[in-house]
Amino acid sequence: MTTLATAAEPSLEELQVQAQQGSPDAQLSLAIRYRDGNGVAKDDAAAMSWGHRAADQGHAEALDFVGFAYLRGAVVRRNPEVAFGYFKAAADESAQGAFNLGQCYFGAQGTEQDCGKAVDWWKKAAAKGHGRAASTAAMALLSGEGVPADPAEARRLAERAAALNDPSGLVVLGELQFRAGELDAAKSNWEKAAKLFPTSETGHPAQPSGNASAQQGADLLKLIEYRQRKSEPGEFAFVQMPHIHQGYNNCGSTACATFARFQGGEISGWDFKKLCPSPLGTGTDWWHLLDASAKIGQQWKLVTFTPDDAGFEEATAMLKRELDAGRPVVVDFKYVGPQYPGGFAGHTLSVCGYIVAEDLYILCNPAVATPGLQLITSDDLKNFWRSNYYGSLAKGVLSRPAFVIER
């Protein structure tokens, strides 16, 4: 996203004069202020008007600003094809534009999917100083998601992201160090990540990317001991899962691909999505995900629980039974809030552990940095683990859905 206006900028009155005189920098600054309601009443129409005026002059960051508005669909009607065109025009000069262009190629947004081109553009953005682009490319190369796996290049990019002080890069590099037995280095990077944004006892899966990565750093520090311990049924369990960082709107298929990989499969999130009838870059019906699992020889079943307290007790008892047996569980979350187009969003991820003494559960989330681990309180799990749009056959009835390994 475009950098927010800072205190060093001219006053609103000065910006308005400069913008009227044709300064694209001032026009973009005004657009950002109107979008965010920073020192002026929030006004989406004014934000887009000033953004367009700067973009029409070829201002690279303004081109990215307008493109992101069309991709997100929160300020104007969503149009990925228009967004892609703006990002392509911005990418040679704008690191953020190059990152977003890579996102479009990776997630088939406004263009045919091309994961190789996505990684190339992320690398170009990383060379321009974009830390998140470096960490995102590292994760694609780690898991071999749409491109051949390249652990050495993944580590180089994770180191680049960490050098740029990107919180997700610090998380990924710390994880690579943890796996290599470089425990002190891993701790150091997770501590750095945790200091970049405010953290708390736990976060929640709906946090913005930077906040989520900082919280991950704090969570991973707490989890070091547990990840090195043998599970104690009824008290603590941790099931190590592979992690694939999802592309745009591909949480369901990506979570299912990691579930399949846990059971010995090799499928990617995108290849799992291609087994379903819905197009790339769109949400996936859970019954289609279940059908796709059968196509690759996986024996899963869908179970649901009522959204009340009694249903949560039954659901968490099931979770603990599965996790005690060394089996993770895929669940569907629902987020509600004005920041989501339409007022809500759904997200699919896995529960891979629990800690009774701290009343915590461990998630493996395809939307956050590798290893994807996050801690969540029991109360937050109760709040988020519910859905009435996970599949057409649900008929809008709110429940707590889960995929479990059929035995």
Automatic annotation (TrEMBL):
<dbReference type="InterPro" id="IPR006597">
    <property type="entry name" value="Sel1-like"/>
</dbReference>
<feature type="repeat" description="TPR">
    <location>
        <begin position="167"/>
        <end position="200"/>
    </location>
</feature>
<protein>
    <recommendedName>
        <fullName>Peptidase C39-like domain-containing protein</fullName>
    </recommendedName>
</protein>
<dbReference type="InterPro" id="IPR019734">
    <property type="entry name" value="TPR_rpt"/>
</dbReference>
<dbReference type="InterPro" id="IPR011990">
    <property type="entry name" value="TPR-like_helical_dom_sf"/>
</dbReference>
<dbReference type="InterPro" id="IPR050767">
    <property type="entry name" value="Sel1_AlgK"/>
</dbReference>
<keyword id="KW-0802">TPR repeat</keyword>
<dbReference type="Pfam" id="PF08238">
    <property type="entry name" value="Sel1"/>
</dbReference>
